[in-house]
């Protein structure tokens, strides 16, 4: 299980007093990138290997400024050219899940601007992070 | 069909040269709020009536700085306490759909911090904006 | 006098109920870029001509969601390789100035990654937008 | 000397490949709030004590995705109702200062919506963090 911790920044809230919905996608992107880094991929933007095809967030309960959030990431599906990540966003103080995220990532060649099959090596690494989603 | 137009801001792009995925959710929120305004609801944050339960964006092709985007919004489902919105994000220059969005909105009483049934009046207005999703 | 209008987005507010300070810099960037466009410069990011050396915002009174803001831009100083812009941020509803912005722009060659003198042609255009700052 | 460390997020960059100027103000806000926390103030938004009157950032060299940045904060001036903070933004990898920030903070009563004198107790704490700015 891959996990990062973030602390909610003030500017990530909105006038309803809670975390603005768009901020959750900042956290999911951060979790995704740190997960990809652990797979052994470069974070050099000139050698970027994935493009986001879809992302989703279900909001279970409201989050607030200064909360410590754990974002847990696991592989939920592996396709030919793409794979899916599921995320749990947990409030560290209460240990409750406040949101659930999902991302579909496509193996993408930015030079050729086209998708490419997932290599056997990557498939093995992804499999080792595969978890049946809840 | 409800439609707003936005022009992609420079800070909404990222180092891959395209619109950052989180920025699409800014556009979807803007479309949602403007749609809700047309339903006759106040935009006073002390009298806010809806909470976002889930949102999703499918990225079809990359978007760029300075593009003119049309965000079209329609009701795709009406439940007891919630309803769903579907969005098309269209590049105005090419008339191509570059992304598809979705939102589940819950009728919510922020004072009581609980969801509430959709009134008959709201149901009628939502029905008049109901479109079978593509 | 160059002027753009923006409408404050919901996600640009924060938990104090007003516009978050970082959002004003989004508006100033938008004003700057639209001003530079009127000078005849390309907005192609591969042919970008300026880099921001400094920016500042003085907050005079609080701004809120859904306000219509006018951002007025004028040249306040012209140097050898740089020039300064001053901005007034006006609430369109009350016609009151709610914030004042400033930017120092350097003529910059991104390929060579170094600053370059302002050409005579650019200097003339800038002069025609020069206003003694208040 | 008060110091926080942040790691540049992907969405904080822009299409020029570097950190977008607006993102620096996110870092400065985070540094400011953490500094205020160390002064003993509550971070409860219903008991907020300061409002930002002005902020500025000088950009010395470009910053990039994934850089570790140190944001150092010190008091540079103490007035009757306000005080000033100066910030250095240092690239942790090279130990070079890539940006300089400034903020003018006003002691503010959000209930009464008016500024208030700095108490003797706060003045003492601020004095102990006073550093002549460079």
Question: How would you sum up this structure, described in words?
Answer:
- 4 copies of one chain form a homotetramer.
- Chain A has helices spanning 21-38, 120-127, and strands at 2-7, 50-59, 68-78, 82-91, 96-109, 114-115.
- In chain A, strands 1, 2, 3, 4, 5 and 6 form a 6-stranded antiparallel beta sheet that branches.
- The first copy, chain A, has 2 helices and 6 strands.
- The longest helix of chain A is centred in the N-terminal third of the chain and has 18 residues, at 21-38.
- Chains in contact: A-B, A-C, A-D, B-C, B-D, C-D.
- Chain A binds chain B through residues 15-16, 20-22, 25-26, 29, 45, 48, 51-59, 110, and chain B through 15-16, 20-22, 25-26, 29, 45, 48, 51-59, 110.
- Strand 2 of chain A pairs antiparallel with strand 2 (50-59) of chain B, so a sheet runs across the interface.
In short:
Four copies of one chain form a homotetramer. Chain A is of the alpha+beta class and 134 residues long.
Outline the fold blueprint.
Four copies of one chain form a homotetramer.
Chain A lengths: L1 E6 L13 H18 L11 E10 L8 E11 L3 E10 L4 E14 L4 E2 L4 H8 L7
Antiparallel strand pairs in A: 1-3, 2-5, 3-4, 4-5, 5-6
Outline of chain A: elongated
Biggest chain-to-chain interface with counts: A-B, 20 and 20 residues
Provide the low-confidence segments of chain A as ranges.
Answer: none
Strand content of chain A: 35-45%
Question: What is the helix content of chain A?
Answer: 10-25%
Instruction: Write down the oligomeric state.
Output: homotetramer
Specify Rg of chain A, calculated over alpha carbons.
15 Å
How far is the first residue's CA from the last residue's CA of chain A? 14 Å
Count of alpha/pi helices of chain A: 2
How would you sum up the major sheet of chain A?
Answer: 6 strands, antiparallel
The helix-strand sequence of chain A is EHEEEEEH
Mean pLDDT across every amino acid position of chain A: 95
Structural class, from secondary structure content of chain A?
alpha+beta
